[in-house]
Amino acid sequence: MTQNPKRYTITAALPYTNGPIHIGHLAGVYVPADIYSRYLRLQGKDVAFICGSDEHGVAISMKAKKEGVTPQEVIDKYDGIIRKSFSDFGISFNNYSRTSAKIHHETASEFFRTLYDKGDFIEEVTEQLYDAKANQFLADRFVVGTCPKCDNPEAYGDQCEKCGSTLNATDLINPKSTITGETPILKETKHWFLPLDRYTDFLTEWILVGHKNDWKTNVYGQVKSWIDAGLEPRAVTRDLDWGIDVPVEGAEGKKLYVWFDAPIGYISSTKEWAAREGKDWEPYWKDEETKLVHFIGKDNIVFHCIIFPAMLKAEGSYILPDNVPANEFLNLEGNKLSTSKNWAVWLHEYLEEFPDKQDVLRYALTSNAPETKDNDFTWKDFQARNNNELVAVFGNFVNRVVVLTNKYYDGVIPTPNELTEIDEAALAELKAYPAVISSSVERYRFREALGELMNVARLGNKYLADEEPWKVMKDNPERVKTQMYVALQIAAALSVLAEPFLPFTAAKLSRILKNEGNLKWSDVTDNSELIASGHKIGEAELLFAKIEDEEIQKQIDKLEATKTANLAENKQAEPQKDLIQFEDFAKMDIRIGTILEAEKMPKANKLLVLKVDTGIDVRTIVSGIAESFSPEEIIGKRVSVLANLAPRALRGVESQGMILMTTNAEGKLVFVNPDADAPNGATVN
Question: What's the average model confidence in pLDDT over 534-545?
Fold first, then answer.
C-alpha cells in the first residue's frame, strides 16, 4: 500500500457510449468512486478523479448497425446523455473525456508504438472467424455460440455473460455471425499480441504476494484463478472499421483492440485535465508517491488487474494501481440487469419520475452495495430505506433541531450554559465518528461507512429524545439553550460528514444552517465548536419526503410491462410435431360449447369441475385451469371441446372431454374459442 501519498489518481471505468447509464453502473462503479473522491477532497488531498466515454470497439459498431446510423452519431448521442446523468447525480469527476478525442488517439498510438519499438509484442498470423457473406472478419461481439464451459447457447465471442468466463471467439461451439446468421469460416489474418505469460512472475509477486491482505477477496480470487490457469498472449489489435488505427506499417484495416485502447483513456483524460488546469500530468501517473485506485465492476477485473498492469509494466515509466476495489453485480427485482432487454432503471428516467431525489437513490444503492456479492435492488426496499431511514432518522433529527431553534430563538443559536455529563458524552461520541467513517472509507467499505454516518443522525435523535427540550422549556429554559446548542453541533457535523455520500442533502443542510463551505472533515474532531453561538440559521426545509405506495407500484408495473414485452418478443413457437395423416385428424370430434357451471375440485388447487353444453349434451369436464381462472369469471364462456376423448376419472369425478387452451405472450392460459357466433354443437373441421 502507498503510505501517506502526495496525491491520488482515482479512475472510474469508462462507460460504453452505446446506451444510457443505469443503476447497476452507478452502484458498481460511480457512486463508490465519487464517495472516495469527495471524502479525500474534504481531507484536503490532491485528487484527480478521472473518467470518460469509451467510444471504440464492437459495441459501438453493433449499436450503429442496429440503429442504421454512423458510429459517430451513436457516440455523440450517448456521450451527451451519459455526461448529463453523471452531472445530475453529482458524480464529481475532475475530468470526463472521450476516447474519440485527438489527445486520446495520440496517447494510445504513442503507447502502442513504444511497446512495439521495444519488441514487446508478438507478431503472428492466426486463423480468425470470417463471415464470407458479409465479406469481413468478425469481431468478438459479432459472434455468438455455445459456451464451452457452461453450455450457454448465447455466449459472445469474448465473454459468456451467464458464467462470466472470458473467451476467444474460436472457443465457441457452433458459432454464428450476428451480421448474417451464417456459420463463419476460419481465415488467416495478422495481429499483434501482448505476451501475458512473460508477466506471470511479476503479477504473482505484485498481486498474489504483495496484495494478499489488502485487496478484496473477489478481485484477488479472480486474478489468482487466471494466473493459476496459465496466462497466454492476448491480441491487442483487431480487424475492425471503427477505432484507432494501428500505427505501424503493414497494419492497414486494423485497429487497436478496445481493451488495449480503453484503459489508456485514463491517461489521456488526465492529460486533458492537466492541460486545462495548467498542471503537469506526469506525477499523477509516474510518481511513486501517487496512489492510483481503479473503480470497476467485476467483469473488468482481468483487464485492470492483469492486462493493463502488464501494459504499464512493459512501458516501464508508470506506477501500478494501489487497489482495484471491484464490486459485484446489482440485480433488479430478482433478475439480472439487461440493457438489451430494457430490464433496468435508467438514471435519466429516474429523475423524471423522482425529481430532486438523487440522494435517495445514492443512499439506497450504497446501503445495498454489491461489495462482496451480487445484491438485489427492489423498489420496496428503496421505499423503505427512504421512509424508514432518510425521512425518519436523518430528516427527522435535522427538522426538529431547525424548527425548535427558530421557534425558541428566532433562528439564532443560543449561548450554552455549563455542559452536563450527557452533553459531554454526546459531543465526545460525535468527535469520534470522523475517524470511524474514515476507517471504513479507506478500506473501501462504503456500505459500512454510510451506516456509521446514519449513526451520527441516530446520536442526535437519541439526544433529543432523552433530553426532551420541548418539555424542559416550560421549567428550565436555560437548560434548553445548552440542549439546542449541542443538537446544532451534531446537525453541523452531519452537513460535512454526509457530503461524500449525500452531496445534495449536505449542500441543502449547509444552506439551512447558513454554514456553506465553512467546515472540513477534520473540524468535526478538532474544533470545539462547529457552528457558533449568535449565528443565525435559516428556516426549516424538509430534507427528504416520504415516498408513497402508489409511486412505487408505478415502477413495479413499469417493470412488469417490460417483462411482458420481452416475453412477447422472445417467445418462440414450439417445433412442429411429427406428421399425421388426414384420417388421424378426422377422428377428433371438436365442438363449440358453453360453460354453464364451474366449481373448484375439493383439495385440488389446479382443478375446476365444469358443466359444459356441447350441443350434443351437457357433460362434466374436469380442467386444470383453477390457478388461472376463478369459477365465477368463466361461467358463460364459449369454448372448444374435444368431445370424443375417452372418459377419465380424476379424483373420483369422471371427466368427459377436454377444453382446448393455449398461452399468450405473457405465458397465461387463454381459451381457444370462435371469434364469430357459432351455435353449441358446431363442429371444428
Answer: 97
Contact present, 358 and 351 (Cβ < 8 Å): yes
Look at the block and give the residue holding cell 359444459: 612
Q: What is the DSSP string of 505-558?
A: HHHHHHHHHT-TT---TTHHHH-S-SS-TTPBP-----S--PPPHHHHHHHHHH
Cα(616)–Cα(594) distance, integer angstroms:
12
Count CB atoms within 10 A of the CB of residue 656. Answer: 18
Going by their DSSP bridges, the two strands 7-12 and 47-53 should be labelled as: parallel
Please tell me the least confidently modeled range out of 132-136, 273-277, 302-306: 132-136
Give residue 127's Cα distance to chain centre.
36
Q: How many CB atoms within 10 Å of residue 425?
A: 13
Among the listed residues 32, 570, 557, 24, the one whose alpha carbon sits nearest the alpha carbon of residue 337: 24
Q: Is residue 41 pLDDT above 80, yes or no?
A: yes
Q: Residues 147-153: what's their mean pLDDT?
A: 89
Would you say 128 and 252 are in contact if contact means Cβ atoms under 8 Å apart? no
| Alpha-carbon span 316 to 283, nearest angstrom | 15
Q: What is the C-alpha separation between 386 and 391, in angstroms, rounded?
A: 6
pLDDT of 149 over the 90 cut: no
For residue 569, the model assigns a pLDDT of: 58
What tens digit of pLDDT does each residue of 316-330 get? 999 999 999 999 999
Q: Contact at 8 Å (CB) between 669 and 625?
A: yes
Q: Judge contact between 172 and 151, C-beta under 8 A.
A: no
Dihedral over Cα of 297, 302, 305, 307: its sign:
negative
- DSSP E strands in 157-275: the ranges are 173-177, 185-194, 234-235, 237-239, 254-256
Going by pLDDT thresholds of 50, 70 and 90, the confidence category of residue 584 is confident
Cell matching residue 456? 451520527
Helices (H) and strands (E) in the chain, counts: 24, 25
| Residue 4 DSSP symbol | S
Q: Has residue 574 got a pLDDT over 70?
A: no
Shortest CA distance to 385 belongs to which of 401, 369, 403?
Answer: 369
* Mean pLDDT to the nearest integer, 227-241: 92
Q: Kindly state the cell numbers that stand for 287.
A: 510518481
Residues near 42 by beta carbon (within 8 Å), at least 6 away in sequence: 496, 499, 500, 520, 521
User: pTM of the predicted model, to two decimals?
Assistant: 0.82
DSSP letter assigned to residue 412: B
Task: Identify whether the C-beta of residue 335 lies closer than 8 Å to the C-beta of residue 343.
Answer: yes
